[in-house]
Specification:
About 30% of the residues lie in helices and about 20% in strands. It is of the alpha/beta class. It is globular and about 45 Å long.
């Protein structure tokens, strides 16, 4: 156990996050997402957190992971099939957490574009979230002394 670190950040997840470099992507995905296949295609580490929602994992990850500010957007969600303007409850929660940290809301990708983007992630974190569209991509930024 570590001080001031969320207990949701397992050793395996912390290791995966620590190995990310600037510009690397992490996919936080729900229980229905084809995480094993996508991680295998990407050659990415797969971390499974079956008892947690994607929102809970996002909050914990944001406590240790800087987001990229060189390129925008730095976060992406999946568009609702058949209703490009819909905002599912998980996406509303993601927006709220990101905005509380001074980040812009996530950009939206069509379903298959989201899968393609996720296939380039260096880390795939599959949660136990059973809500539709509880998927989010994050791009890692830098920590600097200047």
């Amino acid at each position: 156990m570590l001080k001031n670190i969320s207990p949701l950040l397992t050793p395996e997840l912390l290791f995966g996050l620590a190995k990310l470099g600037h510009g690397d992507d992490v996919a936080l995905v729900d229980a229905n997402f084809p995480a094993d296949r996508v991680a295998e295609q990407a050659g990415a580490r797969l971390v499974q957190l079956p008892g947690l929602s994607t929102t809970e994992v996002l909050q914990a990850v944001l406590s240790v992971l800087p987001l990229d500010h060189f390129d925008q957007p730095n976060t992406w969600t999946m568009e609702v099939v058949g209703d490009a303007h819909a905002v599912p409850p998980p996406v509303a929660e993601f927006r709220q957490l990101l905005q509380a940290q001074g980040e812009a809301g996530p950009a939206v990708l069509e379903r298959f574009a989201f899968y393609k983007h996720a296939s380039s992630a260096r880390l795939v974190v599959q949660t136990g979230d059973l809500r539709k569209y509880a998927n989010l991509l994050l791009r890692k930024g830098v920590i600097s002394t200047d």
